[in-house]
Design brief:
This protein is an alpha+beta fold and 144 residues long. 25% of the residues lie in helices and 47% in strands. The chain has a seven-stranded antiparallel beta sheet with strand order 1-7-6-5-4-3-2. Helix 1 packs across helix 3. The longest helix is centred in the C-terminal third of the chain and has 24 residues. The relative contact order is 0.25.
């Protein structure tokens, strides 16, 4: 499992605005290339983002589903990109005055990705989520 944290110079509400706008997902999630559809009740439990991952023209159409959420505080996702596999992603927002510590943990839960040794998975996910959190911060910090 990989865990990343970043202090975002925005309130938890501003960060949550980005997370709860499903159409922004490919802007801040590394690897997501386009959004095809967002369920009307996103980010409610059971709702899905229908996205594509990869680089054009080699795109995989799949989805990400909310498995748990506490609006304004946390969201847990089941991200799919078959035939690569599935991952569980947990994002937590910790208030720090006018700023927010954002914690993201991720690990492969099914498919070929689980065959990689945990230290290898951890390194690649940590690298990817460093950039993911950077992008999320850029969006949230500019929402005024």
């Amino acid at each position: 499992m990989a865990e990343n944290t970043r202090i975002v110079h925005a309130t938890p509400e501003q960060v949550w605005e980005v997370l709860s706008d499903g159409w922004l997902y490919p802007v801040w999630v590394v690897g997501a290339s386009r959004m095809r559809e967002v369920d009307d009740d996103w980010p409610a439990v059971g709702s899905k983002l229908h996205h594509s991952v990869g680089l054009w023209p080699l795109l995989i159409d799949d989805n990400t589903e909310v498995t748990a959420t506490v609006p304004g505080h946390s969201i847990t996702l089941r991200a799919r990109a078959w035939p690569v596999g599935e991952a569980e992603v947990d994002i937590r927002l910790v208030p720090m005055g006018a700023e927010t510590e954002v914690r993201i943990t991720e690990d492969a839960v099914s498919g070929p990705g689980v065959l990689a040794p945990p230290p290898v998975r951890g390194v690649t996910l940590k690298w990817r989520n460093t950039e993911t959190l950077r992008r999320l911060a850029y969006l949230a910090e500019r929402r005024r």
